[in-house]
């Protein structure tokens, strides 16, 4: 289903691109970023935009995705370095390793993007096992905590953290109860952390995308679901990953220097109660 981009025939729905037309403005020149789930989808688009803006990027990803090399090639195209770390972020020791390896290669860390996530559709609450619930929480929120815990000691004044939440944190989703619960937790974590790190000059924000056409969208989608995906938002289509990635560039760069504890909502115009 990955090739089937819903709504690509419409003018408002550009073909899938992980890049923008501009050459970049050096907004992240000299920075080093860690991006979890940076091999694919939104994370990949963030990695490429960061490189374009001058950052070297460490990408942590689960090796069942084979896109990592392609993402690294795109980063190198901008003359920046990519460090690929194939690992499972649900385990604390692996998160420590990501930080250690990044420091060994790049000597400093300026930006952390917590973005890796899993989602599994469920019929109802009865059909979710405790193991399933726990695994979703381990990947989607425990890992964010672990990454923060091991990265923060190395962050200095001016550094920043951006966490990927989701519109489901606000709207809920009856077939993604564990997933949407983790996304709500991410927003509370972002706000709490921003308060605690403010005195060090470290900013913490979140991005809560609406529907985005990425590999996360289950391959189990039938034609009807693919066709409907993203149609219910005012812009009438899902986003392409790069349309979400630009929020991360803004938040991580000096342009976002007075933003902390905030959530940006690239969601095609959905009205949400924040
Ligand atoms: P994706 O499947 O392309 O990316 C998810 C990434 O998470 C993958 O790169 C994978 O390597 C990584 N990952 C998963 N489990 C991991 C683990 N145990 N250890 C290490 N890495 C792991 O999907 P995406 O849509 O780009 O998702 C990125 C983020 O965007 C997620 O946080 C997701 O919740 C969020 N989001 C997506 C949408 C959407 O419609 N696609 C909407 C709102 C929010």
TrEMBL record:
Classification via InterPro entries: NAD(P)-bd_dom_sf, Sc_DH/Rdtase_CS, SDR_fam
Classification via CDD domains: SDR_c1
Record has Oxidoreductase as a keyword: yes
GO molecular function, one term: oxidoreductase activity, acting on CH-OH group of donors
Keywords (A to Z) from UniProt: Oxidoreductase
Origin: domain of life: Bacteria
Name of a matching Pfam family: adh_short_C2
Keyword Phosphoprotein attributed: no
Family under the similarity heading: Belongs to the short-chain dehydrogenases/reductases (SDR) family.
Protein name per the record: NAD(P)-dependent dehydrogenase, short-chain alcohol dehydrogenase family
Organism: Ohtaekwangia koreensis
